[in-house]
Design brief:
It is a single chain. By secondary structure, the chain is an alpha/beta fold. It has helices spanning about 50-65, 85-100, 120-125; strands at about 35-40, 65-70, 75, 105-110, 110-115, 140.
């Protein structure tokens, strides 16, 4: 890891301003990879549909060297319940189930934000989910063309 890389065994830098309690450091993690885009949270979008599937995915990720995942469910008007409050709650519940299963793995909150023509207004009215409490966000256009309104986003 380079000197500027995020180290999951230490708390986020103070400038990251954690948004929820799932970001508080727990048992330190071994060195490894962090999955920055996943749909591990069960039953809330087109990803894992049940907790057993989520835990199986975690085991598979661990088998190839991952030590943590940023949970990035779809954030769009098509998934109205996927907001920062619910995603934090669901992520904490998934972490609890991972811990109960005896897996040494961490999950953090995030979101995959669908850009759309009314995104700026939406972002002014709603908390924007960041990746693991950082200042970084994950966007997707869910489209195969570059719309005229995209640069405004």
């Amino acid at each position: 890891m380079g000197s500027n890389a995020y180290n999951p065994t230490t708390p986020p830098p103070s400038s990251a301003a954690p948004q929820d309690s799932s970001l508080k450091p727990q048992a330190s993690l071994p060195p490894g990879l962090i999955d920055m885009h996943s749909h591990l949270l069960p039953g809330i979008d087109d990803g894992c549909q049940a907790i057993e599937e989520s835990l199986d995915c975690v085991r598979r990720l661990m088998a190839v060297g991952f030590v943590g995942t940023i949970c990035t469910p779809h954030i769009t008007r098509h998934f109205a319940d996927n907001n920062t409050v619910n995603v934090a709650r669901w992520t904490q519940e998934l972490q609890r189930r991972i811990d109960e299963a005896g897996l040494r793995y961490r999950v953090w909150t995030g979101g995959e934000i669908a850009l759309h023509q009314g995104f700026i207004e939406w972002a002014r009215a709603n908390p924007v989910p960041t990746l693991a409490g950082s200042r970084c966000v994950l966007f997707d256009t869910w489209d195969d063309k570059w719309h005229k309104w995209l640069p405004a986003c």
